[in-house]
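Q: For a teaching session next week I want to show students how multiple molecules come together into a single three-dimensional assembly. I've collected the sequence lines for a complex. Could you give me the predicted structure tokens for the whole thing so I can convert them for display?
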Amino acid sequence: MTSPVLVLLDHAADGALRPSAAELVTLARPLAGDGGVLGAWVGDGPGPDALAVLAAHGVAAVHAVRPDADPALSAVTAEAVTAVLGATGAGLVLIPSTFEGKEVAAHLAASTGAGVVTDADGVQLQDGVPVASKTVLAGTWTTRCSVVGAPAVVTVKANAVPAEPVAAPREPVVVEHELTVSPAARRVELVERTERAASDRPDLSGAQVVVVGGRGTEGDFGPIEELADLLGAAVGATRVATDEGWIAKEAQIGQTGVTVTPRLYIGAGVSGAVHHRGGMQAAGTIVAVNSDPDAPIFEIADFGVVGDLFTVLPQATAELRRLLG
Amino acid sequence: MRILVAVKHVPDIQSERSLGPDGRMVRDGGDGTLNELDENAVEAALTLVEEAEDGEVVVLTVGPDDAVDAVRRALQMGADEAVHVVDDAIAGSDAVSTARVLAAAVRRLSEEQPVDLVLTGMAALDGLTSLVPTVLADLLELPALTLATEVMVDETAGTVTVRRELDHAVELLRAPLPAVVSVTDSANEPRYPGFKGIMAARKKAVTTWTLADLGLEPDQVGAAGARTAVVAAAERPAREDRVLVTDGGDAGVRLAAYLVENKLV
Ligand SMILES: Cc1cc2nc3c(=O)[nH]c(=O)nc-3n(C[C@H](O)[C@H](O)[C@H](O)COP(=O)(O)OP(=O)(O)OC[C@H]3O[C@@H](n4cnc5c(N)ncnc54)[C@H](O)[C@@H]3O)c2cc1C
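A: Of course. Below is the structure for the complete assembly, covering every listed component.
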């Protein structure tokens, strides 16, 4: 394949690049042909900080598209990506596997005839055809999917590959595009958007370590948060914990919440219901603390502790603090 | 108000699910159900019609013979009518070809009588792509409002407004009717069909359509129309070297040692 690979560069409203960008660029490098890895940036153009990260990771060019409608609308972002596809001839598009990202992918499927694979954890070329790998059925099966339609669109999960800088960084060319959005994409109106306050903890979906509390916490997330802070981990929860209002809704991990793929998952007072497993079973190492020896989570745990989380977690935190000095 | 709800018949996620040699979901386990997340869409439709004190709910599914169970369940919950699109050529459809069939069915239903809203669940618990609602909306040239935790219809203004909660933001989106809206599982609490609902559902008709009824060619759908293909599928091996300890007073210390020894922290 000689065509370039396009990466949708996810960034916050203030222009801060999200971690997915460097990961997707790293994944794209060996797949890109002569044109190299291209970035699509929708909104006000990238600032110097973002450009420095993209340079370090070997992006050849950034296509900065300024639409005349709100880029928070997925239909608007999809039209921006389509415009960049037209301008560059990229044959493969990588998009972060967030809810918004999958929506952009869906618009591309409808408007360009793209084939789409969602939630991939890897992409390779086989005889020039992109083949994406992914886990399915609550993490119990792995599949490889070829994308036969062009362009190929793959949404990629956080942590699919660690971001790796290139040996010889070079400043990406910035190509500016103005976009007049179609009436179709304007049918949806963004009445209101409230950004969530950024937390000091890492983003749940991209975190390397995640500590999760369930009903067993009975609303006291203290031991969970203390361990998480020591490990620089994100805090997650089951739906029971978010439904009870013990922690914000966006902390929910599972089939209908966030999918996490950390190196280490620690669940305390979590039974391991199938809906929850769907969002965490692909974690590298699974640790479970639960007072019930028959809890289903022990079936998938690498290290299980049958015990009370209120004694086990604080003890583990204290010991780790000592060992890690 | 006339609301269509697109629903899917999927293997029960509590059951042992597997993929066949062709990489497709094995669907003959006999424990298929109405996709749990579609119950929220049916519930949202029923509530909207009840609140408007006027209107009807039509459920629509695409799938093999036993997929009719999914619309039957929705009829038991209180939907008024059901349509089942069934055709051998549909087997192997990906999200886009499924949306194509749904779009053709929605078009036909809209010609019979105008449709105000098309509702779906946020995802199907088998493939979990969440692509269908948006692709369906685009093919119908209707606005797509996805992942609603709240759906508000203003019939006088002819608009629908949804609230949705994303990882980084909470949004209110509005669009003119008709529109396609997907709802999450926190939008509502789906009702259980009562005895009356189950009895009433027996009398409700399920219309069956083939591709020909919808003016679709077999090569536009199913594996032929799909733009993705599963080339390999394998069950993940069980995790090895699993350790289970019962706390005798030092489990926290042992846990810490395990994490450090395995360089996990
Ligand atoms: C359509 C649908 C979608 C859903 N989506 C999700 C989803 O995305 N994510 C999700 O998480 N759930 C989801 N659920 C809910 C899911 O089915 C379970 O109900 C939920 O995951 C259970 O949460 P839990 O493990 O916290 O609670 P429980 O299942 O009640 O388990 C609590 C566990 O804590 C243990 N425990 C109690 N006290 C202690 C203690 N002191 N120390 C140690 N252990 C203790 C108990 O032994 C028990 O195993 C969904 C459900 C539906 C129907």
